[in-house]
Amino acid sequence: MRWRGGRIGLALGGGGARGLAHIGVLKVFEKEHIPVDIIVGTSIGALVGGAYAAGMGSDAIEKRLEEYLESPEFQSSAIKAFEEAHEREGEGGLAQKIQNYFRNRFYMVQALLKPGILSNEEFKGTIDYFIPDIQIEDTEIPFRTVATDLVSGKQIVFSSGSLRHAVLASCSVPGAVEPLKAGDMLLSDGGIICLVPISVARREGADIVVGVGVDRDICSGEALNNVIDIYYRASEIMSHELEDNELMDADVLIEPEVGELHWSSFSQATHLIQEGERAAMEKLPLIRNAIPVTRKWFTLKQLFKSRSSP
Q1: Which of the residues are catalytic?
Q2: Is the separation of the CB atoms in 214 and 47 below 8 Å?
Q3: Quick one: average pLDDT of 175-203?
Q4: How many whole angstroms separate alpha carbon 239 and alpha carbon 40?
């Protein structure tokens, strides 16, 4: 059902595993019958948002996530190895430290020899596991996703074409996943220039935008031991400044407390989903206040109907 005025947009930001908190936010939107007219996602926000817009409920996304994290494909993946290496860094005896050292150097060497540790084909299997093979125009909720063209430096917003292709482009994290070639463009993570796509939701017709930011705390106690550490830290600070400017334009901002969780911390899925629920419930009064009166009435009728059903 389309409404005149008061269109509500949901902007889901990037942040790797931290973006699993988006599932918890969607749970609250479902439970409280908060209407959503358009979803715009960046990176992990594109993956979760694309699955939801295509018709998969939040419980179904969570179940599929649990199955994926237990699968042999994920358990033997480079992403799982990243998480284990990060968790064990600086821990254990000499033998363990040597093993972690060489594992990290192995992936570092891989990164120097090819455009991404994971190829498009390797990562495509993950996207296909969650995203149906449909066109963006055919999603149940209007959907947009954001990528960055590394050639022109421009933001690319997908509003048509293959949903899987668009989500893959947005999720191609620099260094981790090979950029996606599309004509003269080389597409990478939308979070490079638009970590939480609030401005895109506005341009695409949303009158009220609820933004969900899952970036970790900018203050970090992690050691900066080498060039790679310093490079990533500098990139993180730049992204944080860009994100702050973007977040100022949200009508309501939901910020789950993800602490300093690493982007690869997928083992924290349950905690992250619960934190997304908590953060969304905390902002529920503000969300309701932002909804126009006509839509509030519709939402209350839906809520009363659901709670009156046997």
Answers
A1: 43, 189
A2: no
A3: 90
A4: 19
